[in-house]
């Protein structure tokens, strides 16, 4: 009897089911890069707080410089950070610099390049001025109380600059989901090791940890664990004691005699939700829970492991951060033929060319072995092939998922 394989979409729904976002915490603005806002952020001030000059020049009454020739008496100067004490009357002007408040009685700015200092000290305008010219009115950017950053927004360079301008020294953000990572296998050694004849370098944990950090989580590497039940049980217990949100095991989830992850996890209290997905690469994916901790057992083959992390760990982390799940696939055209597909959803590594006319051409790479990280690193996207898809020629429509 054939294995019962869970469709990819059903697996994602079960993984994120009943996920509650992490708690909110206040962090200093300087440490908030890539954090997710837990509440809306409103302005604590009005910007600009008063009418200010947008340029270096002369604060004037537009009526005095509406027609040329026009000559004005300079009665003072006001740099940014200072204010002119007094009022400007008809025929008068104040030297002003960018960001300085507009003196009382003025409504416009004559650009310094449009002015000339006469021998008698008067300021001659060489260009006419209209009311409000080169002035930033009070509240042009935002006003106090205005909500400008929404909950669920990821704080990048633009958002952090705005938060600072709103006068927030710290911001409420979602606590970073904590993800423990355990790599399993007698054959694994850390990068930089002197390899024995039957050993390979452990690489999956670095890619998974990078994805966790990139998505706003905190990766906790619990190291390499041999194919020994006691050693794996101890590592799982460390993850439980650390009260992480997610435990990711790498390898040991297949059906071989040494694939013990499922058995040991169950012995440590995991309620198994599902095992085996109708997808390629990544069929031996496992999901369960130990108390509040969600457990993802990823395959050991490097490409399988990383593709599964993108498809299943990413939406779990987004849910923990209170973010909506979105369909990130895009329409494209095949740059080469694909044969018919079997019952598993296929994720084909491919190159991608974005043409000026908006067309996207995704060309399958020639070698698709799930052990080949060199091909995966070369790929720009994954072509998503539904189960039982018919053979498709070059030029046929397809869906792609861009790789980070």
Number of helices: 7
Helicity level: 10-25%
Give the strand tally: 26
Distance between the termini: 38 Å
Nearest-angstrom radius of gyration? 31 Å
At the fourth CATH level, what is the homologous superfamily of the largest domain? MoaB/Mog-like domain
Give the second-level CATH assignment, the architecture of the largest domain.
Answer: 3-Layer(aba) Sandwich
Total domain units: 4
Strand content: 25-35%
Shape: elongated
Name of the level-1 CATH class of the largest domain = Alpha Beta
Topology-level CATH name of the largest domain? Molybdenum Cofactor Biosythetic Enzyme, Chain A
Mean pLDDT: 94
Low-confidence stretches: none
Provide the descriptors you would attach to this structure in a database record.
six-stranded mixed sheet, 7 helices, 404 residues, alpha/beta, elongated, Molybdopterin biosynthesis moea protein, domain 2, Molybdopterin biosynthesis moeA protein, domain 3, 4 domains, 30% strand
